[in-house]
């Protein structure tokens, strides 16, 4: 049995938000507030930047009901960041500052909620604390709509985004079929390097409204082949719905949308977007059809109104397990999910995996789940994704609009 470690904890949120990342924050905060080993619970403003800037919120000052509303509040309530930590062997300035802040507030537990880049931050902080001889247990809490974290069956945030994408695609399909004159619609979906989100559009086929073509970054994109296929489907059916991942690229690796923007985030990732209008212009010129390009953009990662109950509950569980594991003595790990089956039903089992096995890796859609023509996904993907979008969580409302958490965000001194 590990010796009890008494001290404060910090929870930070990092990277692109999701509609359930706050449920994970609540899982950490509620469990930590109720745990005798944890003396104070701090929320870092804008992730690791809040630690560096000494900007921590005292979560013990919050009203319990408002905190519980985090379960249904989209986006990162504590604020997020995209901040690349230096290699500590080359420049340890940030790490020394983090240690200083940890000592100032007697922080003995650090929980970081994010995707691949955030797990890299988490891993580096964990290793630096260990090297410094400062006892601090570090656990990563997974999140990403992209669903591309390694060593876990799936990631909190994906199920809700997948459910939104499938529903939005089905609704667009309905709208796009109203006129007798027909239409081509290009729907652009997030995901830089992995196509889990774009593949989710295929779930719309379960209600008879699936896209005709689906393009993922796992396969090289061929513009001529796309034009030929979309034109043929339009000629034959009078309509064509195309779901396309923002990350599609040519055989030489260059993003199809890259020409449109040169902006990058803190990690040097190209900011993608504008692909729907680019492909719309190309296909309009070739076919003369009425064409609409739709970018789901932020809508797909903040659509808490259509969140999956399974996803919300699993997001909370990830936060809760992170705290319980750290108090039990674990460190340098990320909470991951294993998929099991009990009485023919999907069961999500939390487990721990080393941060080093997650940081900086990307999990792609298996190539064997993509149709041979590279323009669709197979039943295996549907079987995988379907359990993750299940259920409708209870959502408090006010004036028939969502009632989100209103936190005081009292700064710690
Ligand atoms: O967090 C993942 C993600 O949603 C990607 O799919 C997308 O490319 C990216 O974030 C966009 O993030 P930002 O908010 O930095 O523009």
Report what the structure shows.
- The protein has 2 domains: 7-155 and 304-360 and 390-402, Rossmann fold (3-Layer(aba) Sandwich); 161-302, Phosphofructokinase domain (Rossmann fold), CATH 3.40.50.
- By secondary structure, it is α/β, with parallel strands linked by helices.
- It is built from 12 helices and 13 strands.
- Strand 10 (333-342) and strand 11 (345-354) form a beta hairpin.
- It starts with 6 loop residues before the first strand and ends in an 11-residue tail after the last strand.
- The strands form 3 sheets. A 7-stranded mixed beta sheet has the order 3-2-1-4-5-10-11, sandwiched between helices. A 4-stranded parallel beta sheet has the order 7-8-6-9, with helices on both faces. The chain has a two-stranded antiparallel ribbon with strand order 12-13.
- It binds 6-O-phosphono-beta-D-fructofuranose.
- 6-O-phosphono-beta-D-fructofuranose binds next to loops.
């Amino acid at each position: 049995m590990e010796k009890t470690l008494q001290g404060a904890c910090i929870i930070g949120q990092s990277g692109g938000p999701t509609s359930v990342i706050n449920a994970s924050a609540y899982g950490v905060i509620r469990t930590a507030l109720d745990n005798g080993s944890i003396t104070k619970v701090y929320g870092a403003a804008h992730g690791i930047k809040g630690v560096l800037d000494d900007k921590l919120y005292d979560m013990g000052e919050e009203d319990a009901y408002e905190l519980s509303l985090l379960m249904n509040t989209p986006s990162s309530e504590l604020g997020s960041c995209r901040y690349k930590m230096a290699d500590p062997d080359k420049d340890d300035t940030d790490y020394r500052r983090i240690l200083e802040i940890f000592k100032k507030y007697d922080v003995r537990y650090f929980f970081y909620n994010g995707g691949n880049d955030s797990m890299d931050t988490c891993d580096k902080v964990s290793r630096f604390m260990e090297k410094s001889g400062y006892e601090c247990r570090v656990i990563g809490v997974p999140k990403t709509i992209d669903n591309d974290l390694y060593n876990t069956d799936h990631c909190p945030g994906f199920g809700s985004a997948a459910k939104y994408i499938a529903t939005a695609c089905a609704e667009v399909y309905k709208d796009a079929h109203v006129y007798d004159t027909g239409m081509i619609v290009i729907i652009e979906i997030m995901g830089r390097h992995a196509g889990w989100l774009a593949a989710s559009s295929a779930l719309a086929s379960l209600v008879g409204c699936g896209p005709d073509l689906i393009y993922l970054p796992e396969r090289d994109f061929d513009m001529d082949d796309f034009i030929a296929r979309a034109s043929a489907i339009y000629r034959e059916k009078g309509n064509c719905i195309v779901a396309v991942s923002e990350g599609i690229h040519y055989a030489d690796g260059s993003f199809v949308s890259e020409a449109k923007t040169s902006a990058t985030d803190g990690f040097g990732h190209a900011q993608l977007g504008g692909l729907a209008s680019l492909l719309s212009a190309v296909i309009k010129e070739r076919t003369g059809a009425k064409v609409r390009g739709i970018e789901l953009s932020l809508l797909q990662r903040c659509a808490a109104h259509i969140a999956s109950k399974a996803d919300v509950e699993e997001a909370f569980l990830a936060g809760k397990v992170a705290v319980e594991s750290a108090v039990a003595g674990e460190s340098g790990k990320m909470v991951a999910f294993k998929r099991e089956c009990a009485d023919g039903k999907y069961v999500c089992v939390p487990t721990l995996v080393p941060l080093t096995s997650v940081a900086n890796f990307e999990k792609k859609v298996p190539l064997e789940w993509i149709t041979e023509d590279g323009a669709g996904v197979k039943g295996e993907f549907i079987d995988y994704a379907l359990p993750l979008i299940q259920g409708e969580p209870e959502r408090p409302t006010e004036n028939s609009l969502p009632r989100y958490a209103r936190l005081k965000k009292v700064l710690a001194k």
